[in-house]
Design goal:
The structure is a homodimer.
Chain A: E1 4-11, H1 21-37, E2 42-44, H2 62-66, H3 79-88, E3 91-99, E4 105-112, E5 118-123, H4 143-146, E6 157-158, E7 167-172, H5 179-186, E8 192-197, H6 212-229, E9 233-238, E10 241-243, E11 246-248, E12 253-255, E13 261-264, E14 271-278, H7 283-287, H8 292-295, H9 303-306
Parallel strand pairs in A: 1-2, 2-3, 7-8, 8-9
Antiparallel strand pairs in A: 1-14, 3-4, 4-5, 6-7, 9-12, 10-11, 12-13
Helix pairs in contact in A: 1-3
């Protein structure tokens, strides 16, 4: 079987609060068509691509919050994207705000196969931000208020034959900065990591020392190094641009198992990036430098699970 | 107290097998003088700086192996360096091959304070290479043969008042590619990570897909990203150049808690790099993005200690 897969990142420009769901969905379908036209077999969309990044706003009622969530996936507001992907025979990673029948809220992503089958599901574990709004700030980061922490762990899964049975993993936004999540996937032999994000172009917690350039550098650095240290391909895709006055970085990238950026978005708008990924290029790292069985020493890693916060020496 | 410390990396060029110990020590003292002349308070030397990188050679007898080791530190072959450092009031990180009174062999580093006190000791945990020599290869990587795995964990320690009571950690060479070690230090609030290395300018395990440029990129990438993800300064220092026909990368760097390279060696020879590190620059990361207490979710990290090698999904 072929172990080369053509990957696409479908970076999205800003979604304004006032944009209709159909307007946004049409842009996503246009990106899908563009990627498929370039021969992509798998298209990665950002985190929460169907709406604006709503956790920046404080809502008064739970009904206002729930209006941003999907109660089924696909559902009435998303079905057309799934139909087009299936018709094109193209798979996709797509994020969404998930409201379960039991009333739980998660920041979720799924990977859909070329035949429309849902291959894997992930719920964001590293939720940034705060539960309580920060008084006086124009924009909030309320993911800890609106979502529960992901409860599915970091579950790797296999792609179909046409994707070389790739071992795949998913992360969402802030997760990509946490080496623990990458490593749990690495310990499942991950060959292809899919990531969507919305990252503020400024310090979302109110500081003034981080600008868009630094934050884009951090985003790329985290993808490169964690891909390298786990010998995996990675596709990391932004929703970018100015959403109702709040800036989001772009910098969508496709990264090789050597940590090299092989495709990179140049704009802050809707933009498709494409690269061919040879999954067997993961073998050099997995069998040598990062041959975990030969070189890891878990008896010294216990604080990683025994501690949550940092405890300085006396 | 001041929380700004002037750091130096003392990159070393090649040490040939035939070089005398005194010849090499004199070069180290010259580097120390150079760094002190530039006002450095702490000078980082490479891994195994006192000799050639001897694990590339297969030795027939244990006596031949032991000849590369130090039975005390400082000892007769190293005392002059310690004396000069103390006279200058400069601290240092220095690696050495440690042979204990009990006959144990470790790849070790110590950090020495400005008054000559040994502040911390680390024994390399992530030993690369093989126990058995690879037949037919001109150069070996026999660290797993000549050294035992480090048995001290990743112990952070405090610098003196004149270093702002910095929380410090040490790694050695291959350790810098393993996020687990960095994170265990991160969980102790590390603000300054010291690293020495000897890294082949080719794939030391016999492959042909890695060259000096790629391997230097990997070295820098690992230092940058792990410094960023743990909000710490890092000084990562090479022994470089051509040792008896076997190439070593250079690329010594000083990296900020933002993952930015603030000083970088330009040669493959003896070269001092210097930068001022404001330890309080770690606070932005430690209190916000990488506020571990607020954002880590250890219940999902268990495979990191429960597994050694990778286990792919069915």
């Amino acid at each position: 079987m072929s172990r080369i897969i053509r990957l696409a990142g479908a970076q999205m420009g800003a979604n304004q609060k006032a944009d209709s769901r159909r307007q946004i969905l049409d842009r996503m379908i246009a990106l899908l068509d563009d990627a498929a036209g370039q021969g992509a077999q798998l298209v990665v969309f950002p985190e929460l691509p169907f709406t604006t990044f709503f956790p920046r706003w404080l809502f008064e009622t739970q009904a206002e919050v729930d209006a941003w969530f999907e109660t089924s996936m696909p559902g009435p507001n998303t079905q057309a994207l799934f139909d087009r992907a299936k018709a094109l025979g193209v798979g996709m990673y797509v994020g969404f705000a998930e409201l379960t029948p039991q009333g739980q809220h998660f920041n979720t992503s799924i990977t859909v196969g070329p035949d429309g089958t849902i291959l894997g599901k992930y719920r964001k574990i590293h939720l940034p931000g705060t539960v309580e709004p920060r008084i006086g700030d124009r924009f909030q980061q309320l993911e800890k208020r609106y979502f529960e922490y992901g409860d599915l762990g970091f579950p790797a899964f296999r792609g179909p034959e046409s994707w070389g049975r790739a071992i795949m993993g998913m992360l969402i936004c802030n997760d990509r900065r946490w080496p623990e999540g990458w490593r749990v996937y690495g310990l499942q032999g991950v060959e292809l990591m899919l990531i969507g994000y919305n990252s503020a172009a400024y310090d979302p917690m109110g500081g003034t020392t981080e600008d868009a350039s630094l934050r884009t550098f951090h985003s790329t650095l985290a993808a490169q190094a964690n891909a390298y240290m786990n010998a995996t391909w990675a596709v990391s895709v932004a929703k970018a641009g100015n959403e109702d006055g709040s800036g989001l970085i772009g910098g969508s990238v496709i990264v090789s198992p050597n940590g090299i950026v092989v495709a990179e978005a140049k704009t802050l708008g809707d933009e498709v990036i494409v690269a061919d990924a040879d999954l067997d290029a993961c073998r050099q790292g997995k069998e040598k430098m990062f041959n975990f069985a030969a070189h890891r020493r878990p008896q010294w890693y216990r604080p990683i699970i025994d501690q949550v916060g940092a405890v300085p020496p006396a």
